Amino acid sequence: MHILVTGGAGYIGSVTVRTLLDAGHSVTVLDTLEKGWNAAVDARAALEIGSVGDRVALDRVLPGCDAVMHLAGYIEVAESQSDPGRYFANNVSAPQVMLDAMADHGVDALVFSSTAAVYGRPVGIPIHEDAETLPINAYGESKLAFEKLLEASAETAGIRSIRLRYFNAAGAWPDGSLGEAHRPETHLIPSVLTAMQAGASRFEVFGGDYDTPDGTCVRDYVHVCDLAEAHRLALERLEQGGPGGVLNLGSGCGYSNLEVVAACAEVSGCTVAIEIGPRRAGDPASLVASHDLASSDLGWIPRRSDLRTIVEDAWRWHSAHPAGYGKGRPKAPPAEPGPDPKAGGRG
Questions:
Q1: 201: domain CATH number?
Q2: Which of 34, 88, 246, 247 is deepest in the core (most CB within 10 A)?
């Protein structure tokens, strides 16, 4: 299949692109490079610099595509609270243009990068896909709005979609060649590791008075390579005529912010003093997934999503790339097996 991957120069997008290429698919990446990195795009993929809201660019890249993986979008919870209009414009209005273009070009399959933020403050843990969706931040609201737009597009334009609700993406490609490089970085694991790498004396954790065992937020961390594999499986399900729907992607295990900092210290051999700061706007106390549906419907197994493996892979990336990505595009990786087929905020 030939796949258009929007946001394919970003963290999850770049790992997904490589996973698709390794599985024998061909890929075109559409990315503005506002948040992504040219150097993160696998050399085997074609790169088109442009927006999902740019109809001219879409008319260039959609012909010949069999499906779209939509990973482009803004992801920072706190920023969404301070500038919600920007999030709805980028996460809902712009990709509406993409849906119209898909319909015009006869591309009827889409895998969407959604989020656990659509659940808001869940009543029960673990969270199942039929849990009530009551987002408490504009980021989650914008993602849920696009999910609803996709549901409507199934009726009006025949676009079949699988909406993948990520929990906290983390980790890196196991050899350290692809990883997380946000500017600014707001996710917990890379923020802690970067602080430790820089020899920082203190690290701020947002909130210490939540109703959790140690007072800090609890999150479900899922390895970025496991996420990428779920995208491939969802794509192939649609290719085979399978139904669309919503699937959670998480490990099923929750770790507090303090537990994550301790794991980072153990793996890196570095320490940093913890400073408990105020809560961050829009953060629920606990988010832990049930991934039973993804396992039964896709055959998906989160093979690398134990916390130790996630942190080890992330540390390998940060150790090799203290300044993130350089200029240019990487060479295609050697023909070796890949890994077994909003990382968490500081809450």
A1: 3.40.50.720
A2: 247
